[in-house]
Design a protein that fits this description.
alpha+beta, 5-stranded mixed beta sheet, 15 strands, about 20% strand, globular
Length: about 375
C-alpha cells in the first residue's frame, strides 16, 4: 500500500509543479484557456473553462500511476477530456509520449507551434519526482489494487485558478495563511462497493507569509480501509463555536434554515474540494451543499481523508430521507462507482442530492435535525 500511496503522492507533486509553471508563465498561461461547450460544460457557471494544465495533469497522473500499477490503467478517470482544440482549429489528443522530445512536439500542436512553451511543459511532465516522507514509508496496509479505481480532479476550482484568486474562508474573522482554493484532488475507491478508501489533496499554491507569487506545494492524505484509518492530518478538536462553510451562491432558504444552528458563523468559499479541506483541517465543522453541483472527482479524495479522520460525506437528500424515517446512525454516504441513471455527459457522475461533509457525528446529526424540520427546501 505504501507503494500506491507514494506513487499517487509523487503524481500529485508533479501535478502541482505543472500547475505552478502554467500560472507563473504569463505568456504561457494566456495560451492555456479554452471554453468548455456542450455536455462537458458545468451547468453552475455561465463560463466554465478547461485549461491545458487540467488536461496535462490528468494525463500525467494516468500515465505515471498506470505505468507502476498496470491493473489500474483502465480504471483511472478524471473530469477532463484529453482532446484540446488549438487556435488553428485543430483537435489534438493530449497524452504523455515515451520521450520528452515527443511530448514537446505534441504540445506544440496544442500551443499554436509555441516551441518554448511546449518545451517547458514537456520538461515538467517528464521530470522524475522523488518523494521523501518517512511517514508514508511506514504505511502498512494491504489494499487489493485490482479491485480499485481512481477519480482525478486535476485542478479543482479552475475558475479561481485562472483568475489567480484564492478566495479563502475566514476563520473567526481571520484569513488563514497558506490556503488557496485551487487544489489537486485524487481519490481511490472500491469498484464494487463504491466506497472511497484513499484520498490525496495537494495544495499547489501553499504559502507561508511569502510575498508575491512564490509558492510551494503541500499535500494531505488519508486511508480508510477495512477498519484501518491512517492520515497525515490529526483529527481536529471540537470547536467551541460551531461554524459551517457554504458555497458563495448557496440558496437563501438553506442559509436561513442553518442560522438557528450556526448563528453568525455562516462562511462562504469557492471550490468544493477547498470547502472539504476546511472541514478536514478543522476550520469548519461542516460543509453543506443543497444542490447537485459537485461531481465524483470533486469529492472522492476528500471523502477518503474525512473517513480516515472519523467523519465522512453524507448524501444530503438520501440522509434526510433516512433521518426523517427515524434513522440516526449510519446515514447514506456518497459512493463513486455508479453513474446517475438517465443522466448524460458530465452529469452522469454528479452528486445530485447535495452533500454534508463532516468530522464529528454530532455535527452531522445536528445538521440533519435542523434541515429535517424544514419542509420548504427538501
Amino acid at each position: 500500500m505504501a507503494g500506491l500511496l507514494k506513487s499517487l503522492l509523487a503524481a500529485s507533486e508533479k501535478a502541482a509543479s505543472i500547475a505552478q509553471l502554467c500560472r507563473q508563465e504569463e505568456a504561457l498561461f494566456s495560451l492555456l484557456i479554452e471554453e468548455k461547450r456542450g455536455l462537458d460544460k458545468n451547468k453552475k457557471f455561465l463560463q466554465d473553462f478547461k485549461t491545458l494544465a487540467d488536461v496535462l495533469i490528468q494525463e500525467v497522473i494516468k500515465h505515471d500511476v498506470g505505468k507502476k500499477f498496470p491493473e489500474l490503467q483502465d480504471h483511472i478517470r478524471g473530469e477532463e477530456s484529453n482532446k484540446f482544440e488549438n487556435g488553428l482549429g485543430e483537435t489534438v489528443v493530449v497524452q504523455v509520449c515515451p520521450t520528452q522530445e515527443e511530448t514537446a512536439a505534441l504540445l506544440q500542436k496544442v500551443l499554436d507551434r509555441n516551441q518554448k512553451a511546449a518545451s517547458l511543459l514537456a520538461a515538467a511532465i517528464h521530470q522524475e519526482m522523488v518523494l521523501l516522507d518517512p511517514a508514508v514509508d511506514e504505511v502498512d496496509v494491504v489494499i487489493p489494487t485490482e479491485s480499485m479505481a481512481v477519480w482525478i480532479d486535476p485542478i479543482d476550482s479552475t475558475n479561481q485558478y485562472i483568475r489567480g484568486k484564492g478566495n479563502v474562508m475566514p476563520v473567526d474573522g481571520i484569513y488563514p495563511s497558506g490556503l488557496h482554493s485551487a487544489l489537486v484532488l485524487i481519490g481511490v475507491y472500491n469498484r464494487h462497493s463504491g466506497e472511497p478508501v484513499l484520498g490525496i489533496i495537494n495544495e499547489p499554491f501553499f504559502q507561508e507569509e511569502l510575498p508575491g507569487p512564490r509558492w510551494r506545494s503541500k499535500f494531505h492524505w488519508g486511508i480508510c480501509y477495512e477498519g484501518t484509518k491512517l492520515s497525515s492530518l490529526r483529527r481536529p478538536r471540537l470547536r467551541a463555536s460551531p461554524q459551517v462553510v457554504l458555497s458563495s451562491n448557496e440558496k437563501a432558504e438553506l442559509q436561513k434554515a442553518l442560522v438557528p444552528l450556526y448563528g453568525e458563523h455562516l462562511c462562504f468559499a469557492s471550490g468544493a474540494g477547498y470547502k472539504m479541506l476546511c472541514v478536514a483541517l478543522g476550520l469548519a465543522d461542516a460543509y453543506v451543499l443543497s444542490e447537485g453541483s459537485t461531481f465524483k472527482w470533486d469529492s472522492c479524495g476528500p471523502h477518503a481523508i474525512l473517513r480516515a479522520l472519523g467523519g465522512g460525506i453524507a448524501d444530503l437528500s438520501e440522509a434526510l430521507r433516512a433521518f426523517r424515517a427515524g434513522r440516526r446512525k449510519g446515514l447514506p454516504e456518497l459512493t463513486y462507482n455508479k453513474p446517475v441513471e438517465g443522466a448524460v455527459g458530465a452529469e452522469r457522475w454528479a452528486n445530485p442530492g447535495g452533500l454534508v461533509a463532516y468530522i464529528y457525528q454530532e455535527h452531522l446529526e445536528a445538521v440533519m435535525a435542523t434541515l429535517a424540520a424544514t419542509t420548504d427546501i427538501f
